[in-house]
Amino acid sequence: MLDCDVERTRKSHIRLMFNTLAVLSYILEDVDTGRATTLRDPNDDDKGWTTLEVLCHLRDYDRIFLDRARQMVAGTDPQLPGYDHERLAVERRYNEQDLATVLADLQASRAAFIAFFESLDEVQWQRAGIHPERGRFTMDDALMQVGQHDAIHLEQITRILRG
User: Which CATH architecture best describes the domain 4-162?
Assistant: First the structure.
């Protein structure tokens, strides 16, 4: 039988996955393409990402995180692939994408991710993989990673938009 605290924690993190996306939507509600593609992260001088680039990163990493979690369910301690987020931003031309489309894609990806986590049985929750930077990486780690990643980038987008 599953520990009630573990189950409650998992449900809270799944709810957080939904809530952080709602916060992001509120933040971006009045942001136009000009602001989303020109204001840059002031902590990174002129090399910092724009709001649109951060949003594209969130969208792509949502898919990457989900793919890794699926690999963990499907295999025994799979070696999870690493990715170069800076290279992806350049190759995929993040700052040239459409803000509304990227946000819609992220919302669709997040819905699939939430459904994935909600569908796991206890055996699947016990699956793990080998993360390229963190080593052994459990399904609970995968769940918590999303919330942590979201929080980092929500703060970053807010900082960018405040200038």
Answer: Up-down Bundle (1.20)
